[in-house]
Amino acid sequence: MDKERAKFVLQSFRPDGADVGDVDFAEALMLTTKDRELGEWLVKERAFDAEFAECLARVKLPQGLRETVLLAMVQSGSGYPKMEREDDHVIVAGLAGIKVPTELRARILESMERTKIVETQPSTWMRFAMPAAAAAGVVMAFVFFIDKPKDGSLADALQKRVTVDAVQASFVGMYQTPGFSFEKKGTDQHELVSYLQGKKLPCGGMKFPKGLEGMKGFGCREIIVEEKKGSLICFGEEDECVHLIIFRRDDVDGDLPSEDQPQITESGEWAQACWANDKYAYTLISKSQGAELKELF
Amino acid sequence: MSEFADLVDAYYEALYRFGYSLTRNPDHAADLVQETFCIWAAKNEQLRDRSKAKTWLFTTLHREFLGQRRKQARYSDEPLDENIGQEVTGNDEQVDRQMDGQRVVELLGEMEEMYRAPLALFYLQQHSYKEIAEILDVPIGTVMSRLSRGKELLRKRMTSEPSSAPKNLIDVNPELFKKHHG
């Protein structure tokens, strides 16, 4: 591309710089960095264009144009009931002009995602009779899988604690729903943990298995199981994530081993490891083999 | 109904300025905008792809302009509307800006139609040159040629009438450039 060709191309370059990422202009733009005269020409050309565009944008609109247009659209009778009176048209146009809050759609979607009822998807968890995230499933877990609490009251346990199996099932169900999203995404683990700490969620004090220490973060969010609030921190890449779920130790029932000897199991395409210390109960889940998960410890 | 309002709010201002650039007449421009949206309303059910609404609206307005001009055989021979520039109100600073806006519309209006439409779409900053080609139904190369030639003619007209040209449109305005380009 020579200088004249570059000028020809760049005269179509929009004044507001919206085309800066367009590959059609890339070669011409590159030339301007190498040719001083061309670069100076481009500066003047863009300044001229910017000022002309700004002048055009200052052209005043006729008063009431918007309402006139809306009214005309209504009166065009396009599939809507006919308005007999002029007053009706005015009211219809006025209603049509009511602006919906711009953040409403986002709020609706967010509230849907945060709903406490997590519908589990049919999964391999169910096939192995593991308790589902649904309330009925959690009750079954307490009946069939969980040691009775020390105080001897099953009812108290039902009210206070969740099982590791319920945590795992809840995560899988939530993660596989189409609406799943992270509250914060990022590669910095510290930033993800800080975010969760800001929400006063259990984070484990950045004490992760050794294999996670060097991994990039991916995202994090709150996870709620049976009204117990925990943290979900994901590491790695989008298609190869490892998911760490942390709850307060008091919120999770059952005997759990220490970190140096985590309990590792496999179920279908998922492998999971769980352990606990005095303060926190951890569950590490990924779509991998148990042996691969073990290497992270 | 609110869908209509969203669409109108998104595009009616730019459509009006496009129409005004083409017609040089505020009433004709308003009529074009109104007609364009009414056509949209009438065809609402048929136009499924809302992502193409912007291009569709500008294409339709341009087509309506051409259709009306064909009907009015002496449209291109009409003198500039006497009302242009008379809506100016406010203090001196506002008057200057209005004159600048009006003057650019006049300058565009003085261009041949083949240059006027692509220049107006370009300076409205709503469309890439590819979108302009789609709106005007001409090849991309033609758009680039007309923009190149049209800008050259625009500059010639402005430099031949320095007293009526907008301020700072000949020399580079560093402050304005900084504002736009950082």
Features:
heterodimer, A: 297 residues, alpha+beta, 2 domains, seven-stranded antiparallel sheet, 13 helices, 7 strands, elongated, B: 182 residues, mainly alpha, Butyryl-CoA Dehydrogenase, subunit A, domain 3, 8 helices, 69% helix
pLDDT < 50 runs, ≥5 residues of chain A: 116-158
Radius of gyration of chain A: 30 Å
Average pLDDT across residues of chain A? 75
Tally of separate domains of chain A: 2
Number of strands of chain A: 7
CATH topology of chain B: Butyryl-CoA Dehydrogenase, subunit A, domain 3
Number of helices of chain A: 13
Descriptive notes:
- The complex is a heterodimer of chains A (297) and B (182).
- Chain A has two domains: 3-57, no CATH class; 117-294, no CATH class.
- Chain A has a seven-stranded antiparallel sheet.
- Chain A contains 13 helices and seven strands.
- In chain A, strand 2 and strand 3 form a beta hairpin.
- By secondary structure, chain A is of the alpha+beta class.
- Chain A has helices spanning 3-10, 23-34, 36-57, 65-75, 86-96, 104-113, 124-127, 135-144, 154-160, 164-175, 189-198, 210-213, 290-294, and strands spanning 184-185, 217-225, 228-237, 240-248, 263-267, 270-276, 280-286.
- The two termini of chain A are 57 Å apart.
- Mean pLDDT of chain B is 76; it is low at 79-99 and 163-174.
- Chain B is mainly α and 182 residues long.
- Chain B has a single domain (2-77, 94-166), classed as PhyR, sigma-like (SL) domain (Butyryl-CoA Dehydrogenase, subunit A, domain 3), CATH 1.20.140.160.
- Chain B has eight helices and no strands.
- In chain B, helix 1 (2-23) packs across helix 4 (92-109), helix 3 (53-71) crosses helix 6 and helix 5 packs across helix 7.
- Chains A and B meet through helix 3, helix 4 and helix 5 of A and helix 1, helix 2, helix 4, helix 5 and helix 7 of B.
